[in-house]
Structure formats: structure tokens, C-alpha cells
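Narrative progress, year one. The postdoctoral researcher (J.K.) led the effort to move from monomer predictions toward full complexes, under supervision of the PI. The following entry was the first complex the group processed end to end, covering 654 residues in total.
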Amino acid sequence: MLVARKIRVVIAKPGLDGHDRGAKIIARALRDAGMEVIYTGLHQTPEQIVETAIQEDADAVGVSILSGAHMTLVPRIMDGLRENGAEDVLVVLGGTIPAEDAEELKRQGVAAVFTPGAPTSEIVEFLRGKVPA
Amino acid sequence: MATTEDRRELGGEEWRKELYDATPERQGELFSTISGLENEPLYTAESVPLEYDRDLGYPGVFPFTRGVYPSMYRGKLWTMRQFAGFGTAEETNERFRYLLEHGQTGLSTAFDMPTLMGLDSDHPRSLGEVGREGVAVDSLADMETLFGGIPLGEVSTSMTINAPAAMLLAFYVCVGEQQGVPRSELRGTIQTDILKEYIAQKEWIFPPEPSMRLVTDMVEFCAQELPRWHPISISGYHIREAGSNAVQELAFTLANGFAYVDAAIARGLAVDDFAPRLSFFFNAHVDFFEEIAKYRAARRIWARELRGRYGAKNPRSWLMRFHTQTAGVSLTAQQPEVNIVRTALEALAAVLGGTQSLHTNSFDEALALPTENAVRLALRTQQVIAHETGVVNTIDPLGGSYYLEDLTNRLEAEAYDYFDRIEKLGGVVPAIEENFFQREIAEASFRYQSEVEAKQRVIVGVNRYQLEDEPDVEILRIDPALEQKQIDRVQALRERRDSAAAERSLAALKEASTRDEMTLL
């Protein structure tokens, strides 16, 4: 019998930012939608996040940043994934991200950027659409 | 069946059955408060039995439900205190001086993430965070720059810092001494509320027990040396921003307040020697009446417990004075101008709830730190409430509203339920260690999100009345070069300082920290 493979997502909080309301809501919504969710906890370095994504064999990494440090931290996560041959891991960003920065990060390979108010259903649908079954 | 002619004869129950229930209610949206408290369609004198002196009292009179001061805003408006800080100490010092030149009398300092976490700006974990959402302070030298040219004997300063609060307060006292201002004349507030860091904001460095010792050291030091300083600002704001509801914000904040009082009493301090200097900080969310009820219930609970449970004799110990900030979490990135309206309504709730000072958020803060124009508009919002709406003309103008009084009573009762649950877990610190607060908050925040996604709660521009094309908004950019400038500053300082003396001081501090009888300030 064929069992549908569960999408594996790492939800990550890089840097010193302690705002984790969004990350926790997303983690729970993805789990409720049938995905395997690994939440890193707070205060992770980009290197730790890359390592978790690889060790957990994640399909996607959801990065949550509300501290304004996204232009420093996200490119380091992207570089780390590439250097470790894990560029196929989908990177999705959430937080207080100005439109201009979102565009630049998408150019660097971030698959999508969700800002405050984005419904969790939209994020679930996005991941289902992008991760090959 | 009752007709319109005999309506006057009806009691509440008959009105409900015969007239109200005859019309179908709107379907889909919830009628409950954000905390999930059910609202009746109507409140009357029958639904809320009040004993005036016991439940309300007069403004400035126990139990202070109607306000902490006899004249409230007819005597003095609330302090309009906007929170600011960015880049290095130089940039923020310029902003402070600008604000003071334009008539502001109080300062409110936002520190950056590395400073909040006690990290130097050149620490690897500080990368990308220096000066981003507050000012970077690595040393006494930075503090001297931050307050350079500002007479500390004349201004009051609020500092939002918790884990390293003792160090920042020591810096402030040193800058005061350099200016020739005696400690007894320094005025201000330092947040120091470490308990809510574990519960909500998570910018803590040490575990709860040693952190509580540091907080108590500060309370003791301030009681003896800084009589005009507020050593703690017990904060519900962050608890709310972390996703809690109004009931949880009220209950957890007050429980934390009692924990600080317990700790200081256990240290041997007399309650009346420190309680008058405790202050509070609440959120103003968008559920208008629930917020107003929250502030009124908070004042009443604090007064009762300080007088009853703790036996405080000085009426100033019973007073809950608080700062309010509108809810950052209620702001949306979609159609951000609508945030101006949300903030205005939230600010109005804070004023009708009797706040002592107020920060209004800027409409662009779901996107970035606010621009100068956005900050000015936020301040103007407070000025319109203060000078144009007339709400300041009468004290507690909603007092006696059947609905508001009932809601105040219910919030109070819900808070006491939480106090019991926390007590059963052994108090605030054991409850933190068991993850009780975080679990409760995550549950409430997920429930709210689910209600929004089911469109049972409507957020304008988010789940109804959306726009296809969102307008572009001008946002504030922090110059990335400032991070390197600050790193150069801290490295230059390390080069020129007497390293042997620094090592000796650190060793002495470490030694003292192992001895409970030493005060670390």
C-alpha cells in the first residue's frame, strides 16, 4: 500500500529575536495540516539552522524574523544550504519584512515571504504546492 | 406576547425572551471578547449588583477602580512618552536632544537586541542585530555619549532593559555622578521585569532563581539610594504581544508583581519601603471594553492585595500606576494606513482606562521601525484624544456602565482563577519551570488565529475588505554602516582600557555573586 509521504518542515528562529508567537502558530498549523514539524527553539545561528535542516532531511525551512536582521541572517542560511548541497530545501520567510527586502531575498532564492496577517492556510497551500509529493 | 405599548412593564428576562429573541442574530462572527468571555446582548442594573464604595470608590480612593489620582486628567494629562532608539549612542543622543528641545520632558530608551542579551556588538551572535531595533550600548562610554548634554537632574528616563538591568542602572548612576547629580535626584524607570522574559519575550540570560536575586538586589538598592527611581516596571505588554489574551495578561502580570513583592519581603524589606516605587506596563489591544475593564480590574486587585494580603499601610503602596502601549500585534502589513485607526481606538481605551503614560505605535511598524512622519502622526493621535474629544473632562466616564462594571468583575474573577492555578503549581517560578505560562499563551494565540482564519473574527484588510494591489509605504532604513562603527568603538575601548583592572573587577563581582548576603549593586 502506498502511504503519502509527510512533508517535513523545520521552523527556525535565527538571531537574538525572541518574538515566537508567529513561529509557534505556524508550527502548530502545519502539524495540524499533517506535516512533520521540527521547531528549533529560539536564538539559533544560521549554521545551526542549516545543520538542523540537513539532519532532519527537511523539505522546507520556515524562517521567522521580526528583529530587522533578515538581510544579514537569511543570506547566510541560503549560502549554508548551498555549500552543503542542500539547495533543494525550500526556504520560506515570515516576519516584519519590507517589500523591497522581500524582493531581494527572493532573488537570492527564498521561495516566499509572508508578512504579519498572512493566513496559515495560505502557507499550508504554498508548501503543498511546492514540495513534490 | 408583549407589544411595543407594554414594553415599559417588562423585566430583563421577559425583554430577552419576548422582544430580543424575536429577531435573529447575525451569524458567523463571534459576540465574545477576544479572551473568549461571552457577552450578553444587554446589561441592566439587575445583571450587575454593585456596592459603590466596596467595588468602585472615588478616584484616588481605595480600591481605585476609577483611577489612582483624585483629579486624574483634569489635574494633569497622561505623559505622552514615545519609545525611541536606533543605531549608536550618537544617533540616539541626537534624537533625544531633538525631542527635549521640542518640549518633551521624559525620555524612553529602546536598546538593541545584543544589549538586551548582554552581548558586545562584536560578538558573533550580534551580527546583523547591532543598532537595528534600538541603541547599542556596550560600555559606560556609550552611556556617556547617549546622555551627553542631557541634564539627568531635570529629565526622567525610562530604560527598557531586563536581564542586564543592574548594569545599565549602574551606568546611569555613573553618568549622573559625572554630571554632579546626586543619586537621590535621579528620576526614571528601568524595566527589570525578568519574570515576563521567561514567560513571553525570552530575553533572559540567567535562570529564574539567580535572576530574581538580582532583581531583589535592585529593589533594595533603589529603596536605599534612588528614592525617586522605579526599579521595576511589571509588564503585561510583552505577555500580550506573545499571543496571550486580556485575562492572561492581567493575571500573569499581577502574579509576577506579587512574586516581586514576596521576594523583597523575604529579603527583609518592609512592604511600604519599596511598594510605592513599583510600576506597571500594559498593552492596549483592540477589544475596546475588555481592555478598559482590564485596567480597572488590575487597579482594584493590586490595591486589595497590597492592603489585605501584604498589610501595606502607606496608601501609595496600594496604587497601581501604569504605562500603556498600543498593541503592536494588532497592526497589519496589509493596508497599513488602517493601523492609524486601530491605534487611535486602542489609545482611547487606555485613556478611558486611566493610564499614567502612553506610547502610540506608528502605522508602519508591521513593516519596519517607524519613520519620523509616522511617529509624529502617532503622537498627534494622543493629542487629538487629549485635546479634541472631550474624554478627559470627566474622570472614569464609563464607570457605572452596567456592561463595563460586569466585565471588570468578570476579568477580576478570571484573574483570581489563574492566581489559584499558579499557586497550586507552587508559585510563578515553578510555573515557569513547568512551562505553564507558555503553554497557556500558545493555546490562546492559536485559538485566536483559528477564529480569524474561520472568519469568526474579522480583521479589516486581512480576512475581509482586502485590496488586490497594496499601496507602497515609505519605510525607515537603518544605515548598515552603523554596525561597523559600533564594533570599532567597542574594540577601541577594549584596546585602551586597563585590562588587569577589568579582570580584577569581574573576579570580585563573580565572587560576590556566590554570596547571598552581598548586594550586587
